[in-house]
Amino acid sequence: MRGVNFLRHIVVSCCLIAASDAAIVLNQIETFSAQNGWQSGSPNPNPPVLAANAGPLGTGDSALRVTSNGGTGAGSRLVVFNTTAWTGDYLSAGILTLAMDLRNSGSTSLSLRVALDGPGGKFVSAPTVINAFSGWVSAVFSIKASSLISASGTDAAATLADVTELRILHSSTVDYRGAQISSGFQVDNIQAIPEPTTTALIYLVGAMFLFRKR
């Protein structure tokens, strides 16, 4: 798994086009060398924080740690969001999938989803279940208009054409706010990609290149 994550990090980073705020681009990647606008709102007693040397590659690889304290009120929901670097026109950019590395640091299985807001309203993806105390796992979330689930939204295509907020959250039901739970997860290497089959070809080319260099 470490070798696959390392290869993916190298190959996608080589393909990356520099992104500006409100201008999402294909192959954009978030490696959390800085927090880059990821937050959970305020007030929050346990905001997301950068965790040094905690990413899939270990030493030198940082990740974002997201926690919640359950109950009610501020900090009760397991959610993190971005309203800057991960906004814009996903449709024109050709982004159909969000991939990322995830690690469940809590004692309860998590149903993690991505969620998007925009002119067409709020939508969430289908969930990916991450087992309690998991190691790092790679997850892929389809965000095609036909795959998204309405969380009070009316037009998924309109939202994808002008995303104003991207979220990562836990909820076993369709809920844009995230569920109230005492738990946590870590995230790294968020990537904006086309269909997974296309991405697999990119990884294969990268593997062949590295093999020939050896």
What does this structure look like?
- The chain is α+β, with helices and mostly antiparallel strands and 214 residues long.
- The chain is built from four helices and twelve strands.
- The chain has helices at residues 2-15, 90-93, 156-160, 196-213, and strands at 29-30, 49-51, 63-69, 79-82, 97-104, 110-117, 123-124, 128-130, 137-142, 149-150, 165-170, 182-193.
- Strands 1, 2, 3, 5, 9 and 12 form a six-stranded antiparallel β-sheet that branches. Strands 4, 6, 7, 8, 10 and 11 form a six-stranded antiparallel β-sheet that branches.
- Strand 6 (110-117) and strand 7 form a beta hairpin.
- Helix 1 (2-15) packs across helix 4 (196-213).
- The longest helix has 18 residues, at 196-213.
- It is globular.
- The two termini are 20 Å apart.
- Mean pLDDT is 87; it is low at 9-21 and 201-214.
Defining traits:
214 residues; alpha+beta; six-stranded antiparallel beta sheet; globular; disordered C terminus
Q: Label the structural class.
A: alpha+beta
- SSE topology string: HEEEEHEEEEEEHEEH
Low-confidence stretches are 9-21, 201-214
Morphology call: globular
Topology:
Layout: H1 2-15, E1 29-30, E2 49-51, E3 63-69, E4 79-82, H2 90-93, E5 97-104, E6 110-117, E7 123-124, E8 128-130, E9 137-142, E10 149-150, H3 156-160, E11 165-170, E12 182-193, H4 196-213
Antiparallel strand pairs: 1-12, 2-3, 3-12, 4-11, 5-9, 5-12, 6-7, 6-8, 6-11, 7-10
Helix pairs in contact: 1-4
Write a brief structural summary.
The protein is an alpha+beta fold and 214 residues long.
